[in-house]
Amino acid sequence: MSSTLGLSPQSSPVSTEPDVKKSTRKRGIIAFFLSVIQPGLGQIYNRQPIKAIAYFVFWGASLLLYRVLNLWNSFAGFAAFIIILGSAALYMIVQATRVGFRRRAESEAPKRSRSGQIIAIGLAVVVIVANGSGFIWDRVIAIRAFKVPSESMSPTIRFGDRIVANMQAYAKNRPNRGDIVLFLFSPNNTLLLKRVAGVEGDTIEIDHDNVILNGVLVQEPYLEPTNSAADTSGEFGPKKVPEGAIYVMGDNRRNSYDSRYFGVVKLSQVRGKALFIYWSAVHARIGKKVQ
Fold this sequence. Notes:
The chain is built from 7 helices and 11 strands. The protein is of the alpha+beta class. The longest helix is centred in the first third of the chain and has 28 residues.
């Protein structure tokens, strides 16, 4: 009787297709969530460090270019920034997720040098820390979006308008007459939005709705025409604006709580400059420069 050498038919490999599909799904889900947390992390997880490095370099170069050229100060530049970086982030999320779902095993992951992974991880840490600490938003981008909750700046800025402000506009410069500024109002630390009517050293006087600055009547084309017979705003001044302060007023003179009531605003209270309207119920106002 002869014996059979080798494996018996019963010892042939058993299919593990359900386990493979489960593992593939898991990798795809992990890659997706990592990319949502920070685009580029999914590529690092999928062992695609070159793609991650390219994204971080593109992201940093875009921020630097925008900062140097002040492209955030216009609606067109702001919209382009959102579209370009948003599209890049979406691409990274989709690409990482697709690769994650297609990988059937760790052995199928692209082979890349250890140094590439280390560089990619290092850049990811820098980006996450910079974003989390507020350095990118406060020092590099330095713009904020706000929803206007009152009619005090109407018709220039209306109730419900959404504006973008440069929060570093006065880091090195002082506000000018006519600027629309955001400042911190005490005692409840509320941000208010008003127009600069006078700067330090100016002598300001209010004759009903008219502003007389250093003895000269100020032309204010941004105000809505009013019926002088129905004027209730009264008179103010003349008063000299002290050093290190500004005098602010709302464009809606009949409905604005401003320096006529709470006095001057210290320069240390000024937080930013309004730039443009990025959303409004009146669509024709979208993209309008605030001035």
